[in-house]
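in:
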């Protein structure tokens, strides 16, 4: 629902060439995750982001707010104060500057071992949500 608002913000900032808006996607998560260099989660409030777990299952680097569950899954150098744009940029630039397979990436392997469902988490999660939504629609 916020897609047009986000597009307007990007245009107003003169950043059209730096962003690609894909819209809602549900069947090609492997393609989307494979295209990421890093997943940025700038949440002000967060209990346990499933998108973070999916990205880790796909072996992607994640940077996120220094909040709740992210403190359990991400190393300190991958977290930032979401109220500090400078800190967000600094953490993101630092992580993007690291070589692939750096010592920083060890948390990805550890996280993948801890996540239920391991490599099928993304597809399983989608199927469960889809089936639930279909059941609810049928029963109403």
């Amino acid at each position: 629902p916020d897609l047009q608002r986000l597009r307007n913000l990007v245009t107003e900032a003169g950043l059209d060439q730096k962003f690609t808006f894909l819209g809602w996607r549900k069947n090609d998560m492997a393609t989307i995750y494979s295209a990421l260099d890093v997943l940025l989660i700038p949440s002000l409030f967060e209990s346990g982001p499933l998108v973070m777990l999916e990205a880790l299952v796909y072996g992607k680097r994640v940077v996120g707010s220094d909040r709740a569950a992210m403190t359990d899954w991400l190393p300190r150098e991958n977290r930032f104060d979401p109220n500090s744009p400078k800190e967000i940029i600094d953490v993101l630039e630092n992580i993007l500057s690291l070589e692939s397979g750096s010592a920083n990436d060890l948390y990805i392997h550890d996280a993948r071992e801890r996540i239920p469902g391991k490599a099928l988490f993304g597809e399983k999660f989608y199927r469960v949500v889809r089936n639930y939504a279909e059941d609810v629609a049928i029963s109403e």
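note: Residues 136-140 have pLDDT under 50 and may be disordered.
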